[in-house]
Amino acid sequence: MTDVRRGEETLTTDEVLDSKLAAVHRSMGAAVHCRLSGSDGPPELRDPDLALTRALTSAFRQIGLATVARLQPVADTESTKPASTRYSRPPQEHELLSHLPATRLKYRCAALEAARTVEPQELRRTAGEAVSCAQQLSFLLSEGERCTEVHGALRKLGRRLEEMIRLPLPSRQRAALAGPDYLEAVRAHLAAPAARIVSAARSIRRLMEPELLSCLEQDDEDSMPQAWLGAAEVAQDIADDLARLATEAEQLAQVAATVEQASNDFCGADLRNARLHGVPLDGVLWDLGTEWPEDWERHIRESSVPTDGMYGVLVIEHPTAIRSEA
Amino acid sequence: MEDAANIDLASRQLVEEPLALPGRELAEELHEREFAGLVRHLLFQGASWTEAQDAAQDAFTQMCRPGVRISHPKAWLRTVAWRSWVGQQVRVEDAYPEIPDCEAVIHWQCPAQAVEIGHEEREVIAVLLSLPAKQRAAMAWLCDGFTTEEIAREMKTTQASVRQNVARARAALKAGLGLQQPANEERPDD
B85 lies in which domain range? Predict the structure, then answer.
């Protein structure tokens, strides 16, 4: 029996092997226990009756799905896909997630930049403030409040509208030159609601300037109450239009969130063939189902930490170490 | 979940005293406590995470069958779960004259390769899973704390055969982990 020197202590190879096996046994036990606990513990105990019931239910459901699939028109070009994916088309935004993970990772930086361009959170806040301004304006006008407060609210509303009109739109021309479908899709998804917001903001400003201001610029004291009531109605119309615009801003924020998800979430993704050199990886989420290129896997594992609140999901935090070592 | 406190075969005691009890009662008693250990046993033998869970669940279901009385429930569960796992590997149309030598594959999604396991431990698992099926099985039983007598009984073989499988597995593990020193190298205390 040979000996192995470890520090000051001399262990036989059998002892070393035993300790390694015991450590593996313990660690794997802990890993299994954690994994089972994370999914609400072991599955329920199924006696043969319960197991039979479950099996029959499952078979019944599968046959139902297969029957529905068979009855669909043959022209369905997606007939090779599983029934569950064929009949539940994902929402429009989620089409971004259907692009290849390796592509999403490659263009991650550009996609995130496009999402940040529209400043979704800032836009949502601005739209909310504009709605409040218009509602306040409508209230002040209907109550016949003093001119100074009305004009103050009007200026504030004008500033918010200007901010929305100046909303930078993601450049689709650059994407067309660059060529990749994924980036083009990202920019198209962002540009559509952003363009609608800018257009709506311009329409509201047009409504505000000639109609609302003309009502407020009445000099004749006799006709002033009537004019202000008219202005209050216009202000209410503006508030309604802005509420719709705020909904658009909300949708844009959701699209931006989807772009961020497509750029960051690689849980369960097959990235074995992805080229990671030069790709910023900080903030990338992954889990045990993610498959990395063989020569990167160890560095990524060492540069990742568990996320708060998402069981089994890790986030890459020290990409510099990865880039320099891989 | 119980862990093997000692891998040494010589100093072992029987894991279970023979006492035949109704399977249903045993299943209710052992399900929570033994499920994870059973899954680990199959992972050690090379099952994937899903296969191991399915086989473990199947073993407990079989334990609940009416009229079943079991005298060594922990060993029984391992044997039945292993059969269930092997059964998953066999296609209905294949007529196997013998039990197939299930190929162990390193499954990245499986706790055996999970982030919770360190690099050194993953190396041990990788070598372990590269062993022939019988050696893997013997090591899995051994790590769960069973004696050669119990392992031989459950694997339907002799104690000598179990010892031989364990010895070969250990030699392969030592070689695979670089624990074997060249024969002509001087011992540290010489």
Answer: 21-90+106-176
pLDDT tens track for B102-133? 666 555 455 555 656 777 888 888 899 889 98
Chain B residues within an 8 Å CB radius of A10: 188-189
Six-digit token pair at A75? Answer: 């022209």
> In this model, does residue A9 exceed pLDDT 80?
no
| Contacts of residue B109, Cβ cutoff 8 Å, sequence gap at least 6 | A288, A289, B48, B49
Could you tell me if A15 and A114 lie in one domain?
Answer: no
pLDDT value at residue A206: 80
Q: What does the pLDDT read at residue B59?
A: 92
Task: Tell me how many domains chain A contains.
Answer: 3
Does B133 map to a domain? yes
Nearest residue to B114 (alpha-carbon basis) of A257, A24, A278: A24
Q: What is the ipTM of this complex?
A: 0.77
Nearest-by-Cβ selection for A28 from B7, B111, B188: B111
Q: Which domain holds residue A20?
A: 3-32
**E-strand stretches of B18-177:** 21-22, 69-70
State the Cα–Cα distance between residues A42 and B32, nearest whole angstrom. Answer: 7
* B119–A21 C-beta distance less than 8 A: no
CA distance B166 to chain A (A): 12
Q: Is residue B9 part of a domain?
A: no
* Yes or no, beta carbons of B124 and A20 under 8 Å apart: yes
CA dist., res. A247 & res. A261, Å (int)? 21
Please tell me the least confidently modeled range out of A83-92, A150-159, A230-239.
A83-92
Chain A residues with CB-CB distance to B under 8 A? 2-5, 10, 13-14, 16-18, 20-36, 41-43, 45-48, 51, 288-289, 291, 298, 301, 304, 314
pLDDT of residue B15: 63
Determine whether the interchain pair A13/B44 forms a contact, defined as Cβ–Cβ distance below 8 Å: no
